[in-house]
Amino acid sequence: MPISGPGSIARPGRRIGALLIDYFAATIIAIGFLGYDPLELPAEAGWRQFAPMMVFAVLQIVFLATANGSPGHRMLGMRVVRLDGAWVGLWRPIVRTLLLVFVIPAVIWDADQRGLHDKIAGTVLIRG
Predict the structure, then answer these.
(1) Residue 6 falls within a domain, yes or no?
(2) Domain for residue 4, yes or no?
(3) How far is C-alpha 57 from the geometric centre of its chain's CA atoms?
(4) Which InterPro entries match (predicted)?
(5) What phi-psi label fits residue 52: left (phi over 0), alpha (psi between -120 and 50 degrees) or beta?
(6) pLDDT tens readout for residues 61-76
(7) Least C-beta-crowded within 10 Å: which of 9, 29, 68, 111?
(8) Helix (H) or strand (E) holding 6
(9) Is residue 68 included in any domain, yes or no?
C-alpha cells in the first residue's frame, strides 16, 4: 500500500472524525426512533441506555457490507477493504463491529496503524 494519498492506510485523525460522525448519527437516530434520552438516569432508562450503541453497530454492519464504509468513513474519504482488495463480505463487518464496540481492539494498533479489530477481521481502512 502507498505511504500517503489514495489507497494508503487512513490516519488516526480521520478515523476518530468518522467515529464521532457515526456515533452522533446513531445517537440522533436513537433519540428519534427508540426513545433514547441522554439525560435519563441509567437505572430508569433500562435497555434504552444502549440504544445509540445498538444503532451504531447496525449502521456499521450494514454500511460496511454494502458501501465499503460507514457514513462517517465515506464522508471523510475512507473505505474498508480486505487486504486482497475483494469485497469485505458479511462476516467481516460483523466481527469488526463487535470488536469496535468493545473499544480496546480499536485503540491497539500495529506498526502499520491497523487496529486490532481490522487485523482480526482481515480488513484495512484506507483513504480514497
Answers:
(1) no
(2) no
(3) 8
(4) Pra-immunoreactive, RDD, UCP021697
(5) alpha
(6) 999 999 999 999 999 9
(7) 111
(8) none
(9) yes
Q: With helix as H, strand as E and coil as C, how does 78-113 read?
A: EEEEECCCCCCCCHHHHHHHHHHHCCHHHHCECCCC
In this structure, are strands 78-82 and 123-127 parallel, antiparallel, or unpaired? antiparallel
d(CA 15, CA 19): 6
The confidence score (pLDDT) of residue 1 equals 65
Q: What gap in Å lies between CA 19 and CA 25, rounded to an integer? A: 10
Report pLDDT digits (tens) over 78-104. 999 998 888 899 999 999 999 998 877
Does a structural domain hold residue 56?
yes
In sequence order, the 6+-apart residues with CB closer than 8 A to the CB of 128 are 5, 6, 7, 8, 77, 78, 79
pLDDT of residue 104: 73
Q: pLDDT band for position 29 (50/70/90)?
A: very high
Of 108, 18, 10, 107, give the one whose Cα is nearest residue 56.
18
